[in-house]
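Re-run requested by the PI after the first attempt was lost when the workstation crashed. Everything re-entered from the original request form. Ligand of interest: T5A.
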Amino acid sequence: MSDSSQISTKSGLIWRTSRPPHGLFLCLDGPDGAGKSTQAARLCQQLRSDGLQVLAVRDPGGTPLGDRLRSLLLDRDSVESCPRAEMLMFMASRAQLLAEQVMPALEAGTCVVTDRFLLSTLVYQGTAGGIDPAEIWRVGHAATAGLMPNLTLLLDVSREAAKNRMERTRDRIESRPESYQDAVRQGFRSSILDFPAPIRQINADLDPETVFAHILTEVRHVMAEHSRT
Ligand code: T5A
C-alpha cells in the first residue's frame, strides 16, 4: 500500500497507517466481555448511515483460512497447541485477512472496522501468555506488512462487568483461569503507554449508549484528521 504514512517505530520496525485516498482502518479491542462486538456493529451502522462504504471483519477469522484457524484456536474440543504455535496461527489468520479483505477494501477507499487486531496477540499471547513481546512485534510486522489501524479503541472493562456479560459457553481462551484474564486486563491497560499507533482507552463498564458516544467522539476526531492528510 503506497498511500500510507510512517507513524512510528517499535522494536526497530517501522509502522504505518492508511491515508487518503485509501480508507480509514479502525479497530475495537479489549478483554473478553468488554462489548467489542456490540460496539463494532453499532459503529458500522453509524458510519454506513453517514454514507461511508464500510467493511466489518473479525480477527481471527473473516476468510476461509481464517475461519478454519479460528476453529483450531478457539473450539473447546480442538487439538492442543504450544504458545508459539498458537501465536503463529493468530498471525496467519491475520495475514490472510489483510491480504484477502482489509487491503483491497482500504485501497478501494472503504472504511474497515475490525473486531480485534495485533494488540490482542501482544496481550493474550505476550503479556498473559509469556511470549517475549519483542518477538510478537517482529512476527506481527511480517504478518501485517507494518500496517496499523488509524485508531484502536481499547474497551477497558472491570472483571465484574465482564463476568456478568459472559454467560454463554466460553471458548478455549476464555476458559483459561482468572489469573490469565487478570493479566490480559492489565496487559491492555499498560499497552497504551508505548503503542506505536493512535490508541484511546474507553471505559466499557458504562452503559452501551454512553460507551458508543465516547467511541463516536474519538472516531469523528480521527476521521477529520484522516481527511486532512
Ligand atoms: N485472542 C484473539 C487471542 O488470544 N489472541 C489474538 O491475537 C486474538 C485476535 C476470541 C478469543 O481469542 C482471543 C481473545 C478471545 O478470547 P473474540 O471472538 O473477539 O476473540 O471473543 P470475545 O472477546 O469473547 O468476543 P465476544 O463477542 O464474545 O465479546 P465482546 O465482543 O467483548 O462482547 P459482546 O459485544 O459480544 O457483548 C457480550 C454481552 O454483553 C452485553 C451484550 O449485549 C452481550 O450480551 N453488553 C453489555 N452489557 C452491559 N453494558 C455494556 N456496555 C455492554 N456491552 C455489551
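Saved to the shared folder this time. The first strand starts at residue 4 and ends at 10.
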